[in-house]
Design goal:
The complex is a heterodimer of chains A (about 350) and B (about 350). Helix content of chain A is about 35%, strand content about 0%. Chain A is mainly α and about 350 residues long. Chain A is rod-shaped and about 155 Å long. With about 350 residues, chain B is an all-beta fold. Helices cover about 0% and strands about 45% of the residues of chain B. Chain B is built from no helices and 29 strands. In chain B, the strands form seven sheets. In chain B, strands 1-29-28-27 form a four-stranded antiparallel beta sheet, with no helix packed on it. In chain B, strands 2-3-4-5 form a four-stranded antiparallel beta sheet, with no helix packed on it. Chain B is globular. The two termini of chain B are about 35 Å apart. Classes of the chains: A mainly alpha (about 350), B mainly beta (about 350). At the A-B interface, helix 7, strand 1 and helix 10 of A face strand 22 and strand 26 of B.
Chain lengths: ~350, ~350
């Protein structure tokens, strides 16, 4: 094979180029791809830090900025998910690789067809005058004539060498292809290259590249990112698996018996409360709860306040009363009551 | 700012952390005897007015080192629920359960009644219109009205009837926002004070606790009793920027989350960032544009009922006191009742620098 003088790359060259899972761009080499991914897809928009992977960025956002990363930036709509861990060419799911290669090949043959159409050159092995190495096909008369000549030559040799009986003609070979070779002309006369023979790396499921035939645009495939298999062996934990952030100091966790008194307020006081509960428990008194309930029964309206506001995000049940604001409640208390007569006096 | 509260060398190191510390906070001396209902700084000096349920309004002078000195005290006939300074820093208005508002002139220390309602006056705010002469007053009451007063006449200059009792009000430039019971939010353009520029239902599902205008008056923040804040822009074109976020809640314990009321929201006068403070006894600084919490602080030991920044944005004052969020039985002798001054140091209130995308 001679030196390639073409200005466009081979399909093998195209297929071997590293490409970005998130935006399908391809690059000269892996280093460029990785720096592209760091700048375009794995850069923190808060501080500009460039991380190596989407998982790394997620952890960074979580820990440094207390935010959660939901999607990869600048990614194709179906490639924004964080569940695939991509670094350079690593981690791209197999089916995506297949689709990418198929797309590259389609694009290649489409571009090739367009080139042929633009330059007017025929595809290799398909020029206008038919096959380049068209075999000379002899008519039966010619063959008979040559046979006669051959025999005449043999007879002359026999006469010259004194009757040697060799049937292998010394000079017979340069005379062109034998009739046996020319007996299968179809093999060489086909205007199409033999399937699979000419393009290594060409997937068999691909339809043959007929000039002028445009492959249907199959790309981009629309399948949900959630169906992508998670890459095993990833050493970064999935974002939801992160441990919950530690709570605020001063929050008293385990007060399950949440009477009003126990809920009272600050961390300073709750220590005392617990001491008191322990002391009362030692004394065999069922404390507080009954006390508090008694008080609640005695003074119904204020006790029905919004003190233990409980909610679950979906299934909200707030224990409170929307009718009055805390200030209105407070203003109702005798100690804050306003008596114009008394004030005037 | 340097030298404020004397000890701010160590704080610079802590600024990269999201948990702030309270060790430099100073208590105001001679605090009110009962829960503080409202706090406000003078726009012109480090003078703070504090209204309290003990029926009194106190005026403190705050020195650069954080020490405080009582300057003046005057009394209402009932708990005082709101206090505000006039723009020139010369007058203080206070209003409360005695169904009236009083103005105290800080030059003469004379106090006069300037407004009256049929019910407790929950909020009173000064406002000044560009073409008017002198400050006007707007008061909101549980009698479901807001009234405008020009401080010279005993009859209101205007009355607007609201859907429900007024729970919170805030004024910035010509933007007046009124939050009422039943989650109504009314926006009034003070150029046309007689009508609602806009009425909306609060984006939050629960009782409105506080409304607070942005420093640029383009919108306002709403705090609800359910540990949630909403950022709301006035104009519809900005409505895409509206959002709400959770705050002032404990980490979930199984299926239960303790949520606390957001009692006050204060905007930083220079940076436009804001604070939220709640019944959980914590306060936080937020950047609404970056949708980011700048700083959180540990519990201060009791509900925070009111907050404010001074005019330079160097002091954040917060009042700790009993706020009824846990019923009357939670109120006892030991419940903290104080006003604290938190020096703003370093970047703790600065908005996050926007990172340019390359």
């Amino acid at each position: 094979m001679g030196k390639k003088k073409r200005g466009h790359p081979d399909v093998e060259e195209l297929l071997s180029r590293p490409w970005c899972y998130y935006c399908e761009r391809d690059f000269e080499d892996l280093k460029l791809l990785i720096s592209h991914q760091k700048a375009k897809h794995f850069k923190c928009d808060r501080c500009g830090r460039r991380l190596n992977t989407a998982g790394g960025l997620s952890v960074h956002m979580n820990q440094v900025h207390k935010e959660s990363l939901s999607s990869v930036e600048n990614a194709l709509p179906n490639r924004q998910g964080l569940e695939v861990e991509i670094f350079g060419m690593e981690g791209i799911p197999e089916d995506i690789v297949q689709q990418h290669n198929q797309r590259i090949i389609q694009n290649y043959y489409q571009a090739q067809a367009e080139r042929y159409a633009a330059t007017g050159n025929p595809p290799p092995g398909q020029n206008g005058k038919g096959p380049a190495k068209k075999l000379k096909i002899e008519s039966p008369d010619d063959i008979k004539k040559r046979l006669a000549e051959h025999r005449a030559r043999l007879a002359a040799q026999k006469a010259a060498t004194g009757g040697s009986a060799t049937h292998t003609p010394q000079e017979g070979l340069p005379n062109g292809p034998s009739p046996v070779q020319s007996a299968s002309p179809g093999t060489f006369n086909s205007p199409f290259p033999p399937p699979g023979g000419q393009y290594p790396g060409y997937p068999p499921q691909q339809p043959p590249p007929v000039p002028g035939y445009t492959p249907p645009a199959q790309y981009p495939p629309a399948y949900p990112p959630s169906s992508l298999p998670t890459r095993p062996g990833s050493n970064l934990p999935a974002p939801p698996g992160l441990p919950p952030r530690p709570g605020q100091p001063g929050w008293q966790g385990g007060n399950t018996a949440s009477t009003i008194d126990e809920l009272v307020s600050g961390a300073a006081q709750s220590g005392d409360d617990i001491d008191q509960i322990i002391r009362m428990a030692e004394a065999g008194i069922k404390p507080k709860k009954s006390d508090a309930e008694g008080e609640e029964a005695a003074a119904p309206p204020p006790a029905a306040e919004k003190k233990s506001k409980k909610d679950k995000d979906k299934n909200v049940r707030m224990v409170y009363e929307d009718e009055l604001s805390p200030e209105e409640r407070m203003a109702m208390m005798p100690r804050y009551a306003f008596h114009p007569e008394a004030a005037a006096a | 700012m340097a030298g404020l509260f004397a000890t701010n060398t160590a704080a610079a190191a802590a600024t990269s952390n999201t948990i702030g510390d309270l060790k430099n906070d100073v208590a105001v001396s001679n605090p009110p005897e009962d829960t503080v209902s409202d706090l406000v700084f003078s726009p012109t000096a480090n003078i703070m007015a504090v209204s309290s349920w003990d029926k009194k309004v106190r005026i403190y002078q705050i020195a650069d080192n954080g020490s405080s000195e009582g300057k003046h005290i005057y009394e209402h006939d009932a708990p005082v629920l709101s206090v505000d300074f006039s723009k020139d820093g010369q007058k203080v208005v206070s209003a409360g359960a005695d169904k009236q508002a009083k103005v105290c002139d800080l030059q003469t220390l004379q106090t006069a009644q300037v407004a009256a309602h049929d019910q407790t006056v929950k909020c009173a705010r000064f406002f000044e219109l560009p073409n008017s002469n002198g400050p006007m007053l707007v008061t909101g009451s549980w009698d479901k009205t807001i009234k405008y007063w020009d401080l010279r006449q005993s009859t209101p200059a205007g009355v607007v009837t609201c859907q429900e009792r007024v729970y919170s009000m805030d004024v910035r430039n010509s933007l007046l926002v009124v939050g009422t019971a039943d989650r109504y939010i009314n926006v009034i353009n003070l150029q046309e004070p007689g009508k609602f520029y806009k009425t909306l239902q609060s984006p939050l599902k629960w009782q409105t606790r506080v409304v607070s205008c942005f420093t640029d008056a383009s919108g306002f923040a709403i705090g609800s009793i359910e540990g949630r804040c909403a950022i709301q822009y006035v104009e519809d074109k900005d409505s895409g920027s509206n959002f709400s976020f959770k705050c002032h809640r404990d980490p979930p314990q199984g299926t239960t989350t303790q949520v606390y009321s957001v009692n006050d929201i204060s905007f930083h006068p220079q940076h436009g960032t804001f604070s939220t403070a709640g019944s959980d006894g914590t306060f936080h600084f937020w950047d609404k544009d970056a949708k980011h919490r700048l700083k959180g602080y540990p519990s201060v030991g009791g509900s925070i009922t009111a907050t404010t920044f001074n005019s330079q944005g160097t002091i954040f004052a917060y009042a700790v006191g009993y706020d009824w969020s846990k019923g009357f039985m939670a109120n006892n002798q030991n419940y903290p009742n104080k006003v604290m001054l938190h020096p703003i140091q370093g970047d703790e209130c600065k908005p996050r620098p926007s990172v340019k995308k390359r």
